[in-house]
Amino acid sequence: MSRRDLLKRAGMAGAAMTIPLTPVGGGDSAAATTAPAPAEALQAAPRREPIENLTASEADLLEAICARIIPSDANGPGAREARAAHFIDRALGGALASSKPAYTAGFAAFDRYCRSSRGKPFLELNERDQDSVLIDVETGSATGFQGSSAAFFAMVRTHTLQGTFGDPYYGGNANFVGWDLIGYPGVRTNVSADDQRLGAKLAPNHKSAYDTEMFTKAVARGPDGPPEGGRHMDGPANRLRQGFGAQEAGHHIVEGKNHGH
Amino acid sequence: MATKLKPTDVVVIGLGAAGGVAVLPLTQAGIDVVGLEAGTWLTRRDFAPDEIRNNVRDWPQSVQKAQQEVPTHRVNAKANTTRAGSHPMMNAVGGTTLHYWAQSWRLNPWDFKVVSDTTRRYGAARVPKGSTVEDWPFGLDELEGYYDKVEYETGVSGQAGNIKGAIDPRGNIFEGPRARPYPMPPLRSTGFIDLMAAAARGLGWHPFAGPASINSRPYQNRSACMYHGFCNKGGCHVDAKNGPHLTTIPRAQETGRLKVVTRAHVTSIDTDDQGRVTGVTYVTDGQEFIQPAKAVLLASYTYENSRLLLLSKSKAFPNGLSNNHGQVGRHYFSHAQGAGVTALFPFNINAWYGLPAQGVAVDNFADDNYDHGGLDYIGGGNLWVMSDRRPISAASMGTFGRTPAWGKEWKAFIKENADRTNTAYIQKTTLPYEDNFLDLDPTVKDPLGFPVCRITADYKDNERKVAAHTQERMTEWYKAAGAGATQANPLGTMGPTTHAYGGTRMGTNPETNVVNAWGFSHEVPNLGVLGASVMGTSGARNPTLTAQALAWRTAEYLAKNWKSVTS
Fold it and tell me: I want to staple A164 with a disulfide (CB 3.0 to 4.6 A). Which of A178, B64, B514, B565 is the partner?
């Protein structure tokens, strides 16, 4: 199924636009039942945003998985509106380059498993069936993966969270939807005692670290690591890449493991 | 061909927390110093409040020496060896003080006298079997003056609990006597920290604000802390975190006697046939240089200190420099930093901002601050509650078994609870043991072809009992403050860590120690070693201030005994 058909089916306007979306598999929408003629469709179809590292079908699959990990629902926008998949796609050419083979192999295994166990590709399943596939992958009971499918799920989940709750500078957390979801009031360079009292209500300031002129754009490096609790792999050192005003290479340090200094 | 450089008086290997402090007393005494640093200078502009860069992807650096030398780890000599993906240390002028938590503790009196105090109070049998722990060659009183110098020279904020024997209940009532107050009051509290402190007092404990090498008010023409929330593995955008790159190193440069060489990768410490150090060999941009010196101070972090000595083989030292007694790499231990406790409160605690050093400590269950008479272990832990949260880590919180880890229910859970958790940091007594040690890995090498360091270490019964006891106390504290749920986290393993000790232990007996009571090698008179690698016990608190006080003391000794050490 093409992305355009998918967009039509779900009545979506493309990930690059951050308007509220009807979830995938949400049934037939008006847009899908009144398909325009092909020529008009070409004109009216939203221009797909450039994909940097994934194939088109991989990008579609990733976006659908992200949308189930952090769904769009009554509690507000989710990973799709945050453009978590865009964050991951971009990072796979830089900071997360060492994860690229794991994504490529994982997507292929995921698609095979989905078709063989459910009879359809992931994008054609309804939400409940999509979730059941993801539970198989999460728990390691999905077959055909290199190693455990659980490692693939954990990796995608970790990066989805980074793309939803990280600084928008890296291409995710679009319109600060991730920070608004959890109530993070935003990056500040000076915080008062009053800001730290119990019950303080800070209005979200919707600022990226790099909206402040004083900071040099990020330069990072090293091997990408696995999700929290996983085994770290050794990756290429000093993989630097230029683009988007940033040089990135990845290196995963698990936060919250109580590494004090 | 190596280029031989003009001789200097002293080479300091590594300009981090320890080496960066040592250069000041040396240069002020009129001694010429070359400081070799694998990293480079960084500035405030490099310290963006960016969780992805700082906490997820680690740090920006132009030299990645440490990351190419990550130690391997196995729990014992029969176990499989694994290798972590990262080294906790950073290469830069100022080293890991650029991004550390900056908690700057003095050790307690007991930490210097673990064996004799334990024997006196509970009998010699209470010292855990297999432990190689010894008393330090001196007590806290010997180090007090050096702690004081570092606290004032670099700037430490805190609340004294014992000034010349007068106890002040606002501070740590268990600390040893200090000559004067801290140069700055402690970092401010928060609403949540006030709540926790009140709960501790309600339990009859003695909470206090911990010490930090961070400005609570402007100090030495540098800004006060801004509490912006990106201190944990992040540098300071206002230079309020007082590492040596802002304090002792620039002051040493002002004397005109310190030459800082950045991106210098030291490959060996060189010796003559008499077994004296003659200087060091280093590589920068693929070119090899020999820097002759009358004395060498090795200050390159615990793993690298042992590794560089073991790599520096010569006719006089066939098993590695200063290792004719087989003590290099021995008595290694690392803080049991895992086994924290995570709490979930039924209300928001507003911990989005602050820093790990902004918090409240309870020392009632550390060291020998409570009676171990009816117990079967020694030591304890310092309970530390802080204000430290960032969005990705907040969203990555555990769900206390209430929801799956993704999907609709999970999303509702984190929306409600992202600002309701707190994880306590509990540093615990860890002892050295006969079968915990560092050596060279037989197979894994760095890009220059040198073996990396191998850690063989596991926590023993004493560490596990301390962990269990301190987790019980911490759980009790959270409950008293109104937490609805708590979760005790696992102890973890002894892989590469920011709190690594031993390998070049300090002591009077050359059979069981690498350096003497002044920090100079028992076997190589003009070689000194700086850092936590000389410490024989850890206490229940961060090592940096102690490493800095010892570094100052070793440097001062060298300056005062220049002739006898160097000839």
Answer: A178
Q: Crossing angle, helix B19-28 and helix B544-560, to 10 degrees?
A: 30
Q: Could you give the dihedral angle defined by the CA atoms of residues B139, B140, B145 and B150, in that order, rounded to the nearest 10 degrees?
A: 120
CA B12 to chain centroid, in Å, comes to: 19
B43/A243 Cα distance (integer angstroms): 23
Q: Identity (one letter) of the amino acid at B522?
A: H
The position carrying tokens 């290479």 is: A249
Per the listing, tokens 């120690």 go with B513
Please tell me whether the overall predicted TM-score, pTM, comes out greater than 0.85 for this model. yes
B422, B452 contact by CB (below 8 A): no
Percentage above 70 pLDDT, chain A:
65
A211 is written with which tokens? 């909206």
What integer pLDDT is reported at residue A39 of this predicted model?
Answer: 53
Contacts of B369 (CB under 8 A, 6+ apart): B108, B110, B174, B363, B380
CA distance B259 to B252: 9
Written in H, E and C, the secondary structure of B201-217 is HHCCCCEEECCECECCC
User: How far is C-alpha B452 from the geometric centre of its chain's CA atoms?
Assistant: 21
pLDDT tens, position by position, A24-48? 333 333 333 344 445 554 555 556 6
Helix residue ranges per DSSP H, B171-317: 191-202, 248-254, 302-311
What is the Cα–Cα distance from B137 to B512, expressed in whole angstroms?
12
Least trusted range by pLDDT, from A167-176, A248-257, B305-314, B516-525: A248-257
Q: At what angle are helices A100-118 and A56-69 packed, to 10 degrees? A: 80
* Mutate: best of B392, B452, B501, partner A, most A CBs <10 A: B392
Asked if B542 and B17 count as a contact pair (C-beta separation under 8 A), the reply is no
Other C-beta atoms within 10 Å of B139: how many?
A: 15
Query: What DSSP line would sit under B310-337, residue for residue?
Result: HH---SS-TTSTT-TTS-TTEEEEE---
Whole-number pLDDT of residue A44: 56
**pLDDT score of A247:** 26
**CB–CB contact A260 B356 (8 Å):** yes
Put simply, whether A244 touches B (Cβ < 8 Å) is no
**pLDDT tens digit string along B120-129?**
999 999 999 9
CB atoms closer than 10 angstroms to residue B537 = 27
For chain B, helix, strand, coil in percent to 5 are 25, 20, 50
Question: Do B500 and B332 form a contact (C-beta atoms < 8 A)?
Answer: yes
Task: Of B141, B144, B136, B176, give the one whose Cα is nearest residue B160.
Answer: B176
pLDDT tens-place string over residues B325-367: 999 999 999 987 889 999 999 999 999 999 999 999 999 999 9
Map residue B466 onto helix, strand or coil: helix
Nearest CB among A75, A234, A250 relative to B411 is that of: A75
CA distance linking residue B454 with residue B442, whole number of Å? 8
pLDDT for the residue numbered A49: 75
- For an interface test with A, the pick among B57, B413, B423 (most A C-beta atoms closer than 10 Å) comes out as B57
pLDDT bucket at A218, cuts 50 / 70 / 90? low
